[in-house]
Amino acid sequence: MAGIPLTPVPLAAAARGAVALAVPLLVGVGTGAVTPAVIAAIGALWGVSQDGSDPYRLRVRRLVCMGLAAAAGLLAGELALRGGHTASVTVCLAVAAVLAGAISLRGPLASVVGMHLLLGVTIGSGIPVPGPWWQAPVALLAGVGLVVVLSATPWLWRRHHIERAAVLAVFRAASEALSAAGTPAAEAARRQLTAALDHAHQVMGRHLDRAGRAETELGALLGAFHMAVRLGEVTSALVWEGRPLPRSVTDVPLLMAGQLLPDRGELPASVPGTAGSEASSPGLRALAGLYAESGRARPQDAAPRLPAHPWHGAGRLRYAVLLPACVLAAQVCAELLHGPRGYWLPMTVAFVYKPDFGPVFRRALHRCAGTVAGVSAIGAVTLLTTDTYALIGAVAAFGALMAVGVRHHYALATTGLTAIVFVLLDLLGDHRALYGERILDTALAAAIVLVAHFALWPDSAAGRAAAQTEAAVAAALRYRDLAPDATSAQRHTLRRTAYHRLAEARRAAAHARGEPSRPGRTLPAWEEAITAAEQLCDAVSARNVAASPPSMLSAPRRTASDAVGE
């Protein structure tokens, strides 16, 4: 569609996905140790699903925690299966689901850990693995370890590359926001600037308490980040003024980036004129002042930590009850339909029922679509060839597809995962024709989740949207009321907190609107309250740089109570 920028294909991640999945299988086939190799490939498969583009330390931490949780779950499920009692398998699944639900909503990392603990139990209790009891968990950890090595190795030669890219993205977003000033695209461009600042803030988070010398790479990054925070305030003020700006002004953020983080040829070295020559308003003069300071920026103020929005205790408790209920229902259906090896149903429930990952209805729909596509794709491959090495090549290709899908679309990731699992099961000796059954199992698991979620917890997404909108509007009002008497550091803390909460509230509102609602029910106009609060924050920023008189600052047109009231 015209006007929508295309996200680059993550070629490095795709290559890592292909290598991580192919290498264990090639080693296993070559040495005859096929079963441990397949378990290692399952570990690599889950590792690829969590191989992000965030800083290396955070990436490694997530992969290690995920691997340990999955290995522990696999061991527990394996021991339950070896006990020979169906009841022990069911109890193990129920306990794992309760634990997963209890910890999943404590944060992004806990969510990943909880899901893979449950996945490990599901696979361990559903697929008999010969050999000593410790072999499968060790093999799984080896597969995850391979992904860790592939993902973190670039740290050796580009240690702060990810942080640098995130900070540079803020300056580019500021330039785009200034270019959009005075046009209908200004609000969207300012939101993109907020998103870029939020991302840079998260990426730089572990460095913000450090004192880096300006001549070091980290010191330069810290100075550039703090300048980017100040630039966000000035840019918001100029966007709020609502008048078009000349090229000599809109390229100033790029000039600043070139001074703060030099040696990047894609950033312009100079532009016609200067910001100062155009400084016909306090906002423009503030921009010119920032540009003059950019050659000697120092990280003087401690940056704030971004606030989190954990789910309330009642929501966590309800999810901790519903998840095991869904898993148990899926396990009962699996026993009735398939007997042994009925792991697909509870495994799909574990993947689908993640309200913190996005709308449950959309996730279930994408899961079903991806399963159909994956079954069709691997079915077409097996019609052409059943050669083991050709199938391993197909696994590599689907691993690359999955790595791309993890970053772009859940259905695409599910397509790759489904096809890979079929090959892995075939290598384990399960040669049954299960294509149609797995599609039906996926649809049944999705139906179980949707019925439980919308019958017993229909207002979960709307409740989060209401709570986050109210908190965001309150943060905007605090910014308005406290900024005049705050220090520079306190003012930037108030501002970043307000804009961050507003961005989260907007995402929560979109999440709620992506879920089906009861017939005849109209959701509150959260977006109107959020937009009004954003405009208030822009006006406060304008006042802070002396671009408008205090009398311009009124409360949002819609209050929090207006927005969240039923």
Question: Please, could you describe this protein's structure?
Answer:
The protein is globular. The longest helix is centred in the first third of the chain and has 27 residues. The N terminus and C terminus are likely disordered. It has 22 helices and no strands. By secondary structure, it is mostly helical.
- Strand percentage, roughly? under 5%
Structural class: mainly alpha
Largest sheet: none
Count of helix runs: 22
Low-confidence stretches: 1-6, 264-277, 547-552, 557-566
Distance between the termini: 36 Å
Order of helices and strands: HHHHHHHHHHHHHHHHHHHHHH
The mean pLDDT is 83
Form type: globular
Range of helix content:
over 70%
**Total strand segments:** 0
Radius of gyration of CA atoms, rounded to a whole number: 26 Å
Tally of separate domains: 3
